Amino acid sequence: MLAAVLQIRDETLQVLLWQRAQQPDLGRWALPGGQLGADEDVQSSVLRQLADKVDLREVAHIEQLGVFSEPRRVPGVRLVATGFLGLVPCDADPAVPQDTRWHPVSDLPDTAFDHAAIVRDARDRLRAKLSYTNLGFALAPTEFTVSALRDLYVSALGHPVSATNLQRVLARRGVLVATGETAPPGPSGGRPAALFRFAERQLRVTDASAVLRPPS
Question: Strand, coil or helix: what is 85?
């Protein structure tokens, strides 16, 4: 099993990779993962491996991404991998081991095996689900302004998003709830921005036919 764990860091969608210390593909960057334990389900196993191997415990959402079975994906004995998408909120700053780093999805280092393709599949899954589910909860902090949430969507989707349209769409779907509080004013002053939270922090389909497209 392999986990493509994504997080918005420095306004960029990034993935957690660790550097292989043995052959094959010595020195290349790889997705964390491992084998399923005898008494584990796959989700529990992935979460355990992330905690044990890369000290990552702040996973807000995890789901199965797909099965990767190309016969020559790994040299030697044939290995079939089940890939998972994991998401970490932008305000989490997990302390990871020295051989583990966050890398921009748009500028991956030299990766092992087919792991770059798995990362791209994870990115595409995230982008698709941001259109028709409430999955933004797994990228956002507990409370946020609409402008800050828009910036997260822009980083994940890779194209501009209108804060006004985003708020209207998510409010219509019952995804956002106003907290009644406001954010501290910025350096330039101005009217304090309202704070919101997600109504649920579990995955829910909100509009199966919706797609957040780039502006024409």
Answer: strand
Strands 29-30 and 194-198: unpaired
Are residues 74 and 16 part of one domain? yes
How far is Cα 79 from Cα 68, in angstroms, rounded to an integer?
A: 9
What's the pLDDT score for residue 211? 59
| Sign of the CA dihedral running 146, 152, 153, 154 | positive
Instruction: Map residue 124 onto helix, strand or coil.
Output: helix
Q: Could you tell me the sign of the dihedral formed by the alpha carbons of 102, 106, 111, 117, in that order?
A: positive
Asked whether residue 140 is domain-assigned, the answer is yes
pTM of the shown model: 0.92
Residue 90 predicted with pLDDT over 70: yes
Q: Contact 136/150 with Cβ under 8 angstroms?
A: no
Q: Which of 126, 144, 174 is the last residue of a domain?
A: 126
